[in-house]
Amino acid sequence: MRIAANMFTFVSVEIKDRIATVIKVNQHTASSFAEKLGVQRSSVSHVLNGRNKPSIDFIQKMLETFPRVDAGWLITGKNPSQKTEERIVPDEPEVENPEFKQPTQNEKKEIKKIVVFYSDHTFDSYEQGT
């Protein structure tokens, strides 16, 4: 799931927090995330606990496994730039996602998801109907 710059304007302080966000948004546990990346569970645990910084191989596997994660955001924590948003992945059809369209003046806006970030670098996600 790509987090669009116009939807969220937050900067996670540390890369481990952004990795935790990717894990949670994709509904993985640390164990299932490690399996999906093809890395040891201890590697994921050490990164999430702040013991180790992720290696370039770890980051590369993440970006290959989750191609909608913006590399710039993952590494720096800054929202994707306009240049990044215009990038089109070869062989990927350009499809307008109706979930992200801007409402017109007459349309009612409805909150679907709220993410709360705490000062201890944890977060909670609340979705409608859950």
Describe this structure in words.
This protein has 130 residues and is mostly helical. It has one domain (15-87, 110-127): 434 Repressor (Amino-terminal Domain), CATH 1.10.260. It has helices spanning 15-25, 30-37, 41-48, 56-65, 71-76, 82-86; strands at 113-117, 123-127. Strands 1-2 form a two-stranded antiparallel ribbon. A hairpin with a 5-residue loop joins strand 1 (113-117) and strand 2 (123-127). It is elongated and about 50 Å long. It starts with 14 loop residues before the first helix and ends with a strand.
What's the arrangement of secondary structure elements?
Layout: H1 15-25, H2 30-37, H3 41-48, H4 56-65, H5 71-76, H6 82-86, E1 113-117, E2 123-127
Antiparallel strand pairs: 1-2
Helix pairs in contact: 2-3
For this entry, give a set of tags.
434 Repressor (Amino-terminal Domain), mainly alpha, two-stranded antiparallel ribbon, 130 residues, disordered N terminus, 6 helices
Helical residue percent band: 25-40%
Q: How much β-strand is present in the residues?
A: 5-15%
Instruction: Tell me what the CATH architecture is.
Output: Orthogonal Bundle
Spans of 5+ residues with little confidence (pLDDT < 50)?
A: 1-10, 82-94
Summarize the structure.
This protein has 130 residues and is mainly α. The protein has helices spanning 15-25, 30-37, 41-48, 56-65, 71-76, 82-86; strands at residues 113-117, 123-127.
